[in-house]
Amino acid sequence: MNHDTPLTPRLLGDLSDVRRRVVTARTLRERGVPTSLAQERCRRGGPWQRPLPGVYLLHAGPPTSEERLHAVLLYARREPAPGAVMITGPAALALHGLASAPPLPSLERIDLLVPHTRRLRSAGWARIVRAHAVPEPQDVAGVPLAPVARAVADAVERLTDAVAVRRLMTEAVRGGHCEAQVLVRELTRARVLSRPHVVDAVDALLAEGRALGEERLYAMVRDCGLPDPYWNVDLRLPAGPYLGHVDAYWPGQAVAVELDVRRGLDDGEGFDGFDVREADTVWTEHVRRREALERLGVAVVRLCPLRLRDAPREQAAVVRTALMTWEERDPAAHLVVLPR
């Protein structure tokens, strides 16, 4: 057989669509194209290409980005297997629309997130990323993508440029693609938080997340008709010890609100924090101060930034209940309120 061996009319009629231009060996066999013919047409100078094991590109010349994406997905799906398969890393971030991600055509390889039980190996355009816990993929233009937080963590794992790491993480949070705490959780799972340039970026990231949380808290109070509190104040006993900082405080009702930046998971689970040595010490001190306020009669309401985004009226109802029931509680101690 030679490169000019005619194809069936059915196959020729399907070549207008990318999902027909990129096919598996099994699909070709089902269409009456034997493996020997497919291999013949992929020889040097031939009209076809085989960019990945068992995957054929049915034209010569450079592939489009869409063809490369479809090819790596076909490579992972050649045989039925449990668990989702999705694009992750820089390619996923580009498709999610992050400006700081490299453009798809510049990527030599496309990262594929697969369950750890799969025996796939990296090949051609596909780099395999294994995971014990695979998230639910997000469909973008028909392509299954890892959520932004997971895709950032997979990208950061291979980045050594501190500026690029900070730019990706900051855009992911500032652009509303994910919560800071969710991203830190994924970075923890990727075991990259011991790297100095990642730790520095996380400090900026959490500050970014707190700033967004404060904006949402201001909007909740305004839009839901709550009385104005004192914002961002320190509390202490008269001539007594410092009791801590709160994000909002209503002295007449002895109600304080603090943003719970250690939570923010979209699955409702608690956030265990990132693996930095002093994290547990800082958190223990924070809990101790909150408990001291509660013993003094202050109702401390903890609000999660993610809940403020998704359900601000429900969060406002929690604060309103605390404000309305202050007379039912034991009288609170008099506290000094100081601007931070």
Task: Give a short synopsis of this structure.
With 340 residues, the chain is an alpha+beta fold. The chain has 13 helices and 13 strands. This is Transcriptional regulator, AbiEi antitoxin, Type IV TA system.
Give the topology:
Layout: H1 9-13, H2 18-21, E1 22-24, H3 25-30, H4 35-41, E2 49-52, E3 55-57, H5 65-76, E4 86-88, H6 89-96, E5 110-115, E6 126-131, E7 138-140, E8 143-145, H7 148-156, H8 162-174, H9 180-189, H10 196-223, E9 230-236, E10 242-250, E11 255-259, H11 279-295, E12 299-303, H12 305-310, H13 312-324, E13 336-339
Parallel strand pairs: 5-6, 11-12
Antiparallel strand pairs: 1-3, 2-3, 4-5, 7-8, 9-10, 9-13, 10-11
Terminal CA distance: 81 Å
Q: Compute the number of structural domains.
A: 3
Using the CA coordinates, give the radius of gyration. 27 Å
What is the overall shape?
A: elongated
Number of strands: 13
The run of helices and strands is: HHEHHEEHEHEEEEHHHHEEEHEHHE
What proportion of the residues form beta strands (DSSP E)? 15-25%
Number of helices: 13
- Largest sheet, if any? 5 strands, mixed
**Spans where pLDDT lies below 50 across 5 or more residues:** 1-16, 263-279
- Helices and strands: which structural class? alpha+beta
Mean pLDDT reading: 84
| Strand order of the biggest β-sheet | 12-11-10-9-13
In helices, the fraction of residues equals 40-55%
Would you kindly provide a written description of the structure presented here, covering whatever features stand out?
The protein has a 5-stranded mixed sheet. A 3-stranded antiparallel sheet has the order 1-3-2, with helices on both faces. The chain folds into 3 domains: 1-61; 64-178, no CATH class; 217-339, no CATH class. It is built from 13 helices and 13 strands. The model is unreliable at 1-16 and 263-279 (pLDDT under 50). Helix 6 packs across helix 7, helix 7 packs across helix 9 (180-189) and helix 8 (162-174) packs parallel to helix 10 (196-223). It has helices spanning 9-13, 18-21, 25-30, 35-41, 65-76, 89-96, 148-156, 162-174, 180-189, 196-223, 279-295, 305-310, 312-324, and strands at residues 22-24, 49-52, 55-57, 86-88, 110-115, 126-131, 138-140, 143-145, 230-236, 242-250, 255-259, 299-303, 336-339. It is elongated. With 340 residues, the protein is of the alpha+beta class.
